[in-house]
């Protein structure tokens, strides 16, 4: 199917892009990598009057660790930039583990991290990592910038808390107090597929003690599942068989899987519990699964 007719603009600055969105009064859409928006246009699930392509705005493709250790990912950072970043592989294990599991190499070359978070697909990988990492999104609109905590950003399936005249300009991941550990595991029917079930785990460790933790799930609910309350099983503790089992049980209890052609609800919940255990064991002193 062909998309419905739309006007196309390619502004050179964020301010110009915001003006276009503002003038669109809700009928204009940002185009980043186009890997979700273009299929939606073709299927006529989206039919905006105007597309505001942000790809020609310079200075949005940075991956930056600030002096305080916080990580900043600009709106035009593609999935593959994260996959290939040496700094990410050394300093941010949850993102490093997820990056090669997003879609396929062609999609990863175009699709953006921030666009994926904005798209808020319940099966999307990046919204889950952002929730586990206690991240936030910096957005800019006609009245300036504001920061939205990730837990408040995803409102539901394909729904975020941006106003129609705002652009997400960067994702921010706070610095760990100790050392960032963690991981990401995804069950997919075949390579390149969306998640049947996936688990993001973020750990902030001092030696073998957990200072903070984060958990989030994709594919096992009507939206990205925030399972951060399960961190209570680990904070101030060491990763032992008992604490790992407790955390995995708590996370699995927060999943909201449905039985479908990818598997039964029980199976998916079991996968979640198993994946949490695997990631935590891999980050503990005892390397047994
Ligand atoms: C074959 C295929 C397989 C895929 N598999 C996976 C997968 O396994 N895991 C996964 O997570 N994703 C998957 N995706 C989706 C892919 O990762 C997309 O790249 C991503 O979801 C959207 O990023 P984008 O930059 O392409 O955004 P776009 O498609 O350009 O935009 C998506 C939505 O976000 C909005 N948006 C984008 N950027 C901004 C911004 N800066 N500010 C405000 N709004 C914005 C757009 O208006 C639109 O509504 C797949 C896509 C395809 C085509």
Task: Write the SSE topology.
Blueprint: E1 7-9, H1 14-24, E2 28-31, H2 37-42, E3 50-53, E4 63-65, E5 71-74, H3 79-84, H4 86-91, H5 93-98, H6 105-110, H7 113-119, H8 125-132, E6 136-141, E7 144-149, H9 150-153, E8 154-156, E9 159-160, E10 167-173, E11 179-187, E12 197-206, E13 209-218, E14 225-226, H10 241-254, H11 265-282
Parallel strand pairs: 1-3, 2-3
Antiparallel strand pairs: 4-5, 5-10, 6-7, 6-10, 8-9, 11-12, 12-13, 13-14
Bound molecules: flavin-adenine dinucleotide.
The site of flavin-adenine dinucleotide has 29 residues, from strand 2, helix 2, helix 7, helix 8 and strand 10.
Describe this structure in words.
- With 289 residues, the chain is an alpha+beta fold.
- The protein has three domains: 7-53, Uridine Diphospho-n-acetylenolpyruvylglucosamine Reductase, domain 2 (2-Layer Sandwich), CATH 3.30.43.10; 63-173, Uridine Diphospho-n-acetylenolpyruvylglucosamine Reductase, domain 3, CATH 3.30.465; 179-282, CO dehydrogenase flavoprotein, C-terminal domain (Enolase-like, domain 1).
- Helices cover 32% and strands 25% of the residues.
- The protein has helices at residues 14-24, 37-42, 79-84, 86-91, 93-98, 105-110, 113-119, 125-132, 150-153, 241-254, 265-282; strands spanning 7-9, 28-31, 50-53, 63-65, 71-74, 136-141, 144-149, 154-156, 159-160, 167-173, 179-187, 197-206, 209-218, 225-226.
- The strands form four sheets. It has a five-stranded antiparallel β-sheet with strand order 4-5-10-6-7. It has a four-stranded antiparallel β-sheet with strand order 11-12-13-14, sandwiched between helices. Strands 1-3-2 form a three-stranded parallel β-sheet, covered by helices on one side.
- A hairpin with a 2-residue loop joins strand 12 and strand 13.
- Residues 29-37, 39, 75, 102-103, 107, 111-112, 114-116, 118-119, 121, 124-126, 162, 167-168, 194 line the site of flavin-adenine dinucleotide (FAD).
């Amino acid at each position: 199917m062909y998309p419905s007719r739309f006007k196309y603009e390619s502004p050179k600055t964020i301010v110009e892009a915001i003006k276009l969105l503002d003038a669109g009064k809700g009928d204009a859409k940002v185009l980043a990598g186009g890997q979700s928006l273009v299929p939606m246009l073709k299927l006529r699930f989206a039919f905006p009057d105007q597309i505001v392509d942000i790809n020609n705005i310079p200075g949005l493709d940075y991956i930056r660790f600030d002096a305080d250790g916080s990580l900043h990912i600009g709106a035009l950072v593609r999935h593959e930039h994260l996959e290939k970043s040496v700094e990410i592989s050394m300093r941010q294990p949850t993102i490093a583990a997820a990056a090669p599991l997003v879609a396929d190499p062609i999609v990863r070359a175009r699709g953006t991290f921030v666009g994926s978070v904005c798209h808020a697909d319940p099966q999307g990988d990046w919204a889950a990592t952002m929730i586990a990492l206690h991240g936030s999104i910096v957005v800019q609109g006609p009245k300036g910038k504001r920061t939205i905590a990730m837990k408040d950003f995803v409102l539901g399936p394909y729904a975020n808390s941006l106003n129609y005249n705002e652009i997400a300009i960067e994702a921010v991941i706070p610095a760990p107090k100790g050392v960032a550990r963690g991981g990401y595991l995804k069950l997919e029917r075949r390579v390149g597929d969306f998640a049947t079930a996936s688990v993001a785990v973020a750990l902030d460790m001092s030696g073998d003690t957990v200072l903070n933790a984060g958990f989030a799930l994709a594919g096992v609910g009507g939206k990205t599942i925030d399972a951060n309350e399960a961190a209570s099983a680990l904070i101030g503790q060491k990763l032992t068989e008992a604490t790992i089992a407790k955390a995995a049980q708590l996370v699995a209890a927060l999943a909201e899987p449905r039985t479908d052609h990818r598997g039964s609800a029980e199976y998916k919940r079991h996968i979640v519990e198993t994946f949490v255990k695997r990631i935590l064991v891999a980050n503990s002193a005892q390397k047994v699964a």
